[in-house]
C-alpha cells in the first residue's frame, strides 16, 4: 500500500468535508487535526481488522499487558511514521497551505500515567506492535488524566486535565464488548446438585465496563494491535437503581481520575475499586475470547499470557481463579495451574512506601468473593510451604498478615515469573527485598532491563539527528537498533562530529525559543544545557542538583569576574499533590531560579528553567537539547530509570550515581564516557547498617557546603522562609535520609569534570556520539524480545537478531 501526495490530499479533503461540511482552510487547527486523525484511522482500519482476524484464524498465543497507566504521548506523528506516510502527509499538508506542526501541536497529550511506569507501558505497546507480536494493552480510560501543573508565585498548583474536551479521534467505543463488574454485597457457597459449590451473590452493585479501543500501529509492518481502556457506566437495565445524582456519581467516579501518586502508595477505597474494575473487565474479556475458540482449558496458558505491570493489576490472580472456579466449574488444582502459568509480574520498586497492601476488611466488604479466594490461596500456600521451608520463612511470605493483603506477595505466589527492571534492581530483589520468595521460587526470578522506543525518542523527537544517522549508517536501526553501533565508526570523523554539534545547537535554539516565548527567559544556546526531568521525589534528589546550583551562584557572587562554563539548568517535574516536601522543593528551586535569573552579576553564566507541566511532549522538546543528563538518585533507590536512556540516545552525557540502569549505561559506554559520582549501593547499605552517619558532621567538615546550607535559612533567597527551614531540617535535624550532603562533594567534583570537558568541544562531541552509538541495547524492542522469549513464550513476525536475547550486552 503506497500513498501518493495527490491521493492523500484528495482523501484527506474528503474526510474533512464529510466531518465538517466546510472549507478546510477556514477550519481551526483542532478541526484539521481531528480530520487528519480520522484519515489515519480509515487508512489503518483494514490492517487493524486484518491483524485481529489473523490472530483469531491462526489461534496464536496473545499477550495481555495489564497496566493501571499508559502514557502514550501525542499519537498523530508516531502513527504517520509507523504507517510509513509521515513525509507524504507532511508534504501534502504543506501543499494545501496548512501548517503541519500546528496541526500536530493541537493534539492533547493524554496524561493517563504518572511517569516512568506508564511511559514504559506505552513504549512496550510500540515495540510489541513493531515486532509483530500479538499483544494487547489493558487499562483504564480515565476521564481526567494527571493534573495540569501551573506555578503561581513558584508554588505548584494543580488543575484538572480534561483531555477529552475535544473528543478523542483514536478511540473506538465498543459497547458490544462490554462486561459487568460486581462490587460489594454478600456471597455464600451453595451445593449445586452436581457436587460443586457455587457462589450465590446478593445485594451486589453491578457496574458496566465499556471498552474503548485504540489501534497500536506497528512500524511499517501492517500490524495494528489493540489498546483497550475501560470506562465505568451504569448498566442500562439497572438505571432504575441509580436515581439520584449521588448514586450515579459513585459509578462515574470509578474511572473519573488517575491517582497522581508516583512511587507512593495510597490505600484509598476508590483506588481499590479502580484496580478491580479494570482487572476484572480485562480478565472477563480474555476468557470470553478464549471460549470463542472452543479449545480445552488445558490450552489456556498456551494461548494467553497475562502480564501484570506492578501490583496494581495483581487482582488478576484471584479474578482469573474466580472465573475458572465459579463460572466455568473447574477444580481448584486445574484453575490454579492455569492461573500461575498464564500470569507474570513485573516489580517496579523496592521502596516500602510504594508497596501496595489493602486492609483485609476493605477487601472483604468491597470484593467478598475475591477475598474468599485470596484466603484460600493463602491457606494453600501455608499448607504447602511450611513442611518445606518451616513456619518462620513461610509466614514471612504469606499474602495476608497483620490485617493486610500484600499485593506483591499475591502477585509472586500467583505467577510463574517475577522480574525486576534493571540488573541492580533484580539483584536487590533477590538478595534483600524478596529474598524469602527467592529462596522458595529461585527459577521465577529474572531481570528485564527497561527500554525505550527509538522511533519516538530519536526518529520523531530528533529528526535532524535521525537524518545524520541515516546518512552515515542507513535506516536499519529503526527496526534493528543494534545497528546504531555502526555509528561508532564516525567517532573520530571531524565532519560528523561537527554536524552532531550543529544539530545539538539547533535543538537548543528550539528549546530557547520555547523558553523565551513561554517564560520570557533569554537563554544562550551555546551554554551547557543541564537537564533533570522526572517526577519530583526525595530519592531522585532534585535537591542535590539545586544545592550545586546554589554553590555555583555563591562562587559568582564572591567574584563576579570569575570565568565559569555558562550553564542552563533545566528542570521538569510534577509533585504528587499530597507530597508536601516535594512541593516545597519545587518552590525552593523556583525561588532560586527567580533570584539567579534576575541577578545582573550572573548574566549568561547561569540560567534556570523549571518548565511547567512536564510530560511526554515536553520531554520530546527538552531531550534533544540536553548536554548533560542528571541521573542522581541515591544508589539503590531508582529501579531502572528510562529518561537516562532517552537522553543518552540523543547524545547527552550522563552524570550519575551507580543506580538502576545507569550501571548498564556505564558498562556500555565505558567509564570514560560518563560522569560518575557518589555512594554505591553497597556503601549506602553499609552506612545504613552502621547507623553512624551524621549529616551535621559532614556539614561541619565542609565550609563550602555549610555556606550553601546557610542560604536556605538566612533570607538570601527571598520568599522561602518556611520551605528553606523545612529543607534545612530534613538535612540536619532529620539526618539527611537520602545522603544528599554525603554525596555533595563528589557531585560537585563530577560537575567540574563536565565543565572542563565541555571546553574541549571535539572531545565532548566524540563522547556524545559514542553515547548515541551505544544506546541500541536500550531499545524496548530488545526488552520486549526478551519478555516474549523468556516470559510470555509468544512469537513475533519480526523478531530477528536473536543473539541480543543473551543478557543485556550487545553482540
Ligand atoms: C521517560 C519519562 C519518565 C521517566 O523518567 P525517569 O527519569 O526515568 O524517572 C517520566 N515522565 C515522562 C513524561 C517520561 O517521558
UniProtKB/TrEMBL annotation:
It comes from the Bacteria. Keywords: Carbohydrate metabolism, Glycosyltransferase, Pyridoxal phosphate, Transferase. Its EC number is 2.4.1.1. It is an enzyme of class 2 (transferase). The keyword Transferase applies. Signal peptide: none annotated. Its cofactor is pyridoxal 5'-phosphate. GO terms for molecular function: 1,4-alpha-oligoglucan phosphorylase activity. It catalyses: [(1->4)-alpha-D-glucosyl](n) + phosphate = [(1->4)-alpha-D-glucosyl](n-1) + alpha-D-glucose 1-phosphate. It holds the Pfam family Phosphorylase. Allosteric enzyme that catalyzes the rate-limiting step in glycogen catabolism, the phosphorolytic cleavage of glycogen to produce glucose-1-phosphate, and plays a central role in maintaining cellular and organismal glucose homeostasis. Belongs to the glycogen phosphorylase family. This is Alpha-1,4 glucan phosphorylase.
Amino acid at each position: 500500500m503506497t500513498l501518493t501526495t495527490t491521493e492523500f490530499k484528495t482523501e484527506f479533503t474528503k474526510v474533512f468535508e464529510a466531518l465538517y461540511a466546510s472549507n478546510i482552510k477556514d477550519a481551526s487547527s483542532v478541526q484539521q487535526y481531528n480530520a487528519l486523525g480520522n484519515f489515519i484511522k480509515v487508512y489503518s482500519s483494514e490492517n487493524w481488522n486484518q491483524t485481529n482476524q489473523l490472530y483469531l484464524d491462526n489461534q496464536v498465543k496473545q499477550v495481555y499487558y495489564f497496566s493501571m497507566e499508559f502514557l502514550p504521548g501525542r499519537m498523530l506523528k508516531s502513527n504517520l511514521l509507523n504507517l510509513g506516510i509521515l513525509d507524504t502527509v507532511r508534504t501534502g499538508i504543506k501543499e494545501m497551505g496548512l501548517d503541519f506542526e500546528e496541526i500536530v501541536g493541537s493534539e492533547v497529550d493524554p496524561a493517563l500515567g504518572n511517569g516512568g511506569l506508564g511511559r514504559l507501558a506505552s513504549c512496550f505497546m510500540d515495540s510489541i506492535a513493531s515486532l509483530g507480536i500479538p499483544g494487547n494493552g489493558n487499562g483504564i480510560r480515565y476521564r481526567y488524566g494527571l493534573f495540569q501543573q501551573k506555578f503561581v508565585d513558584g508554588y505548584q498548583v494543580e488543575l484538572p486535565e480534561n483531555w477529552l474536551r475535544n473528543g478523542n479521534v483514536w478511540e473506538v467505543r465498543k459497547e458490544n464488548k462490554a462486561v459487568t463488574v460486581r462490587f460489594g454485597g454478600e456471597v455464600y457457597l451453595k451445593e449445586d446438585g452436581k457436587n460443586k459449590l457455587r457462589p450465590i451473590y446478593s445485594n451486589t452493585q453491578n457496574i458496566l465496563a465499556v471498552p474503548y479501543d485504540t489501534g497500536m500501529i506497528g512500524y511499517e509492518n501492517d500490524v495494528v494491535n489493540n489498546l483497550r481502556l475501560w470506562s465505568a457506566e451504569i448498566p442500562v437495565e439497572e438505571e432504575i437503581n441509580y436515581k439520584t445524582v449521588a448514586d450515579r456519581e459513585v459509578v462515574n467516579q470509578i474511572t473519573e481520575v488517575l491517582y497522581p501518586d508516583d512511587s507512593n502508595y495510597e490505600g484509598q477505597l476508590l483506588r481499590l475499586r479502580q484496580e478491580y474494575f479494570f482487572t476484572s473487565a480485562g480478565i472477563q474479556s480474555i476468557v470470553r475470547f478464549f471460549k470463542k475458540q472452543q479449545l480445552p482449558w488445558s490450552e489456556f496458558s498456551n494461548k494467553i499470557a497475562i502480564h501484570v505491570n506492578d501490583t496494581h493489576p495483581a487482582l488478576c490472580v484471584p479474578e482469573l481463579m474466580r472465573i475458572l472456579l465459579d463460572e466455568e466449574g473447574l477444580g481448584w488444582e486445574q484453575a490454579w495451574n492455569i492461573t500461575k502459568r498464564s500470569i507474570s509480574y513485573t516489580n517496579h520498586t523496592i521502596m516500602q512506601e510504594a508497596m501496595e497492601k489493602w486492609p483485609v476488611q476493605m477487601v472483604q466488604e468491597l470484593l467478598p468473593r475475591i477475598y474468599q479466594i485470596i484466603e484460600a490461596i493463602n491457606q494453600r500456600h501455608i499448607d504447602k510451604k511450611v513442611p518445606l521451608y518451616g513456619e518462620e520463612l513461610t509466614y514471612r511470605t504469606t499474602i495476608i498478615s497483620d490485617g493486610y493483603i500484600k499485593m506483591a506477595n499475591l502477585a509472586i505466589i500467583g505467577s510463574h515469573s517475577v522480574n525486576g527492571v534493571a540488573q541492580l534492581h533484580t539483584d536487590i530483589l533477590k538478595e534483600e527485598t524478596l529474598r524469602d520468595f527467592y529462596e522458595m521460587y529461585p527459577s521465577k526470578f529474572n531481570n528485564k532491563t527497561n527500554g525505550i522506543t527509538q522511533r519516538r525518542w530519536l526518529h520523531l523527537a530528533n529528526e535532524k539527528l535521525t537524518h545524520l544517522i541515516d546518512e552515515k549508517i542507513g535506516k536499519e536501526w529503526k527496526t534493528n537498533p543494534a545497528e546504531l553501533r555502526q555509528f561508532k565508526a564516525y567517532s573520530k570523523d571531524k565532519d560528523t562530529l561537527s554536524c552532531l554539534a550543529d544539530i545539538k545547537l539547533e535543538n537548543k535554539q528550539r528549546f530557547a525559543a520555547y523558553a523565551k516565548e513561554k517564560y520570557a527567559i533569554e537563554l544562550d544556546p551555546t551554554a551547557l544545557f543541564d537537564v533533570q526531568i522526572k517526577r519530583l521525589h526525595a530519592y531522585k534528589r532534585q535537591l542535590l542538583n539545586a544545592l550545586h546550583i546554589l554553590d555555583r551562584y555563591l562562587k559568582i557572587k564572591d567574584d563576579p569576574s570569575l570565568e565559569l562554563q555558562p550553564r542552563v539548568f533545566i528542570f521538569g517535574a510534577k509533585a504528587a499533590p499530597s507530597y508536601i516536601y516535594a512541593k516545597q522543593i519545587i518552590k525552593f528551586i523556583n525561588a532560586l531560579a527567580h533570584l539567579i535569573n534576575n541577578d545582573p552579576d550572573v548574566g549568561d553564566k547561569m540560567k534556570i528553567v523549571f518548565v511547567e507541566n512536564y510530560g511526554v511532549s515536553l520531554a520530546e522538546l527538552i531531550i534533544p537539547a540536553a548536554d548533560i543528563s542528571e541521573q542522581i538518585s541515591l544508589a539503590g533507590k531508582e529501579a531502572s530509570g528510562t529518561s537516562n536512556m532517552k537522553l543518552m540516545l540523543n547524545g547527552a552525557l550522563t552524570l550519575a550515581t551507580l543506580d538502576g540502569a545507569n550501571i548498564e549505561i556505564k558498562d556500555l559506554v565505558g567509564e570514560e564516557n560518563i560522569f560518575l559520582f557518589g555512594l554505591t549501593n553497597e556503601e549506602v547499605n553499609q552506612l545504613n547498617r552502621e547507623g553512624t552517619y551524621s549529616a551535621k558532621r559532614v556539614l561541619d567538615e565542609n565550609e563550602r557546603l555549610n555556606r550553601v546550607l546557610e542560604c536556605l535559612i538566612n533570607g538570601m533567597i527571598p520568599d522561602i522562609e518556611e520551605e528553606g527551614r523545612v529543607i534545612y531540617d530534613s538535612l540536619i535535624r532529620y539526618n539527611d535520609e537520602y545522603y544528599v550532603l554525603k554525596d555533595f562533594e563528589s557531585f560537585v567534583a563530577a560537575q567540574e569534570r563536565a565543565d572542563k570537558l565541555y571546553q574541549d568541544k571535539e572531545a565532548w562531541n566524540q563522547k556524545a556520539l559514542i553515547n548515541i552509538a551505544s544506546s541500541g541495547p536500550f531499545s524496548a524492542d530488545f526488552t520486549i524480545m526478551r519478555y516474549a522469549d523468556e516470559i510470555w513464550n509468544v512469537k513475533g513476525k519480526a523478531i530477528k537478531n536473536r543473539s541480543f536475547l543473551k543478557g543485556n550486552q550487545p553482540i
